[in-house]
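Obj.: predict assembly geometry.
Materials: sequence records (below).
Method: joint structure prediction, all chains together.
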Amino acid sequence: MQPRSHNFKENAARALHDDVLQSALSNVRSGFVAKRARARSALPEFDQLCNEARDIKNHTLAHLDLYLEAYEAKVVEHGGHVHWAADAAEACGIIADICRQQNARTVTKGKSMIGEEIAINDHLEHAGFEVFETDLGEYLIQIRGEAPSHIIGPAIHLTRPQIEADFRRTHTDLPAERDLSNAENLVAEARAVLRERFVAADVGITGANLLIAETGTSVIVTNEGNGDLTQTLPRTHIVIASIEKMAPTLEDANTILRILARSATGQDMSTYTTYSTGPKRDGDLDGPDNYHVVLLDNGRSAMLGGQFHDMLCCIRCGACLNHCPVYNAVGGHAYGWVYPGPMGAVLTPSLVGVEEAGHLPNASSFCGRCEAVCPMSIPLPKMMRHWREREVDQGRMPLGQRTAFKAWAFLAKRPALYHAATSIGVGFLSLLGRRKGAIRSLPLLSGWTRNRDLPAPQGRTFQDQWRAGWRT
Amino acid sequence: MPGTRQSRETPARVGLFVTCIVDLFRPSVAFAALKLLREAGCDVEVPRLQTCCGQPAYNSGLRTDAREIAAKVITAFEDYDYVVAPSGSCAAMLRLHYPELFAADAALAPRAQAFAEKVHELVSFLVDVMEIDGVDASFEGSVTYHDACSGLRELDIKDQPRRLLASVKGLELKEMDEAETCCGFGGAFAVKYPDISGAIAERKTRCANEAGADCLVAGDLGCLMQLAGKLSREGSGMSVRHVAEVLAGMTEEPAIGAVED
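Observations (raw C-alpha cells):
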C-alpha cells in the first residue's frame, strides 16, 4: 500500500472522533496489557529469557551474512530454493514468477507483515491471480479493503457488528436469515468459507517468525492453524521473510518463542508453532512439492551497524503497540502504513523515508513504556529521538517551531538574560490568570489551550523571589 | 522530629536544580523542596546560573543546543555533593542523558559522568540517599498518586513517594487505575499533537476521578500542569499538587490552576 504517514495528524484526528474505533481500542488496553503482565509474572525467568534472546539476536546480527548463507545451504540441501530480493518490487516479481511457473490460479496466504510491506496481494491480483487471506483478521481486512491496524491483530480495530455486516455483504450465497450475532457463529462461517480456499489453492504463501540457520527451517506461530493448511495443502509453498528473522539453532529459536507469545498475547505458547523444512520428502504424507524462500532486504542491511541497528532485533510481538498511549488513542491506521505504534515510528522512516514518515517519531510523549515492555529491550524512544535529530539536520523542522526553539535556546544559554526575560513573561501570564487561576485561551499557546486550561503562574519566578529574599 | 536520617559530621552540600517549569509556574514547589532538604539535614544552595536542563531541545532533535545548555548546567553544579531536582523528568535528563550527550566528547564525557552520578530526584533522594522514612506534615484529605513516566521508568521511583505520603498525618492514599500510564504531556508533544495529548489526558483524569480522591499528586510539574489544565477544563473539583508541597506540609498556597477560596 502507498504510505499515508504524512497525513498522520489528519488520520489521528479522524480516529479520535471515531466512536466505534475507540470502543475497539479499549479492548487492546484492557486485554493485551493485563494478559502480558500475568504471563510475565507467572514465569520467574521471563526477564532472564529476554536477556538471552537479546544476546542471541545480537550475535546473529553480528554474523548475519554467515547465518544467511548457512541457512540457504540447508534449504537447498533439503530440496528447496532460496531467492534474494533487494526490495519490494524484486520480491513481488520473484513470487509472481513462481506462481506463473506453477500455472497457479489461486493463492492462499498466511498472515505475513512482510507480505503487507511489499504489498504482495495487490501485485499478484494485478498479475491475474486470485489471492485469499486465511488468517481470520487478515481475511476481514481483505474483504474490507483495509490495511492491518496492529502487527499481531490486523483487525483489532473492528467490532463484532461491523464483522457481521461485512460477512452479510460478502458471503451472499449463504442464507440471509442465519444467526451471526455471536463470535462463535462468525468464526464458524469464516472457517467454512476458508476451508474451500485451502483445498483449491495452487500456491500457499506464509511469512516466518523465525528462520533457523542450523536446519534451514522456517517457523510460524498462529492461533488458528491456518498457516499449516496454507503451507501443506497447495503444491507450492513460498515463505517470505526479511533477513533479520534469522536464529542460529533450534534451541535459540525456542528461547525467542518462549518470550514471543507471552509478550504478544500473554499465552505461554501460540496454539500452533509450525516448522517447515523444504518440500515433501519420500514417505511424507503431506507437504508441498515445491518449497521456495524469498529473503527480503528492503533497507535492512543498511540499518546494520547504524543508529537504527537495534530495531533489527524486533520480534514483532506488538507489546510496544499495546502499551503505547498514542497507539491506544488513535489506533494503527493513523500511522498510515504497515507498521504502527512505537516500532512503526522507528521502522517506517527507515523503510519509506523520513520525508514521508516524519510525524511518526515525533508523535510520542517519550513515556518510555514501549522500551520497558519490549522483550528485546530495544531503545525505541532513543531511536525516535535520532529521527528527530535527522529531521533537524536535514532542515525539515517547521520554521515556526525552529524559530521558537532557537529563541528559547538562545535565552537558556544566557542565565542573566533568561531570568530577566522570564520575569517579564511570568508577570504577564500571572496577571492574565490571576482571577481564575487558569487561563482558558492564549493566542500563541492555542495548541495547549484548545483542549485544556493553562494553570497560571503563582506570581513572580522562583529566582526573583529567591533573590529578593521573600522566603528563605 | 520523626524519621530523620542518621547524623553526619558535615551536612551534605546540595545544589537545588529548580527546573524551569517550577521556576516559572510554581515556585512553591522549590520552596517545599528547600524545606524538605533542610529538614533532612542538607546544606542547600540555589545556583543562580541555572535555567533549564535542555530537555526540550534534546527531545526535539536539537542536539547541539541541548549540549550547550547541558555544559552550562554541569559547570554550575558539578562542585556540589549532590544535585537534586523536584522532577523525575529533569533529573533523568541530567543523570542519564547528559552522559549520552557527551559520550563522544573526550574532554566532557568524564565530567558529565561524574556529574550525573550526583543527580537525584527529590523524593527518591530523601528516601534512598538521606534515608528518611517519614515527614513531619499533615494533610486533611485523600490523594491519588500519578507515577510520572521518567521518574518511574528511568529512575525507579515508585515506592519512595508512597512511603513518605503514608507518614503524612491525616492523609489517605487512594490508588487509581493505570497510575503508571502516561498523562499525555510529553513536553513539546503536548502542543505539537494537542488532540492526541488531550485524549490521553482525558483517560487519565477519568482514572483519577474514579479513584475518588480529593487531590491528585505527582512528582513532575509538567504532568501536573497537563492534568490540572484538563481537570480545570472539565470543571472537576479535584485539586492538583506537587508531592513536595504535600510532604513539606506547604499546602496553604492555592492548588495548581486554582485560586484562593
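Conclusions so far: Chain A has three domains: 1-35+318-397, 43-301, 403-468.
To do: check interface contacts against the pulldown list.
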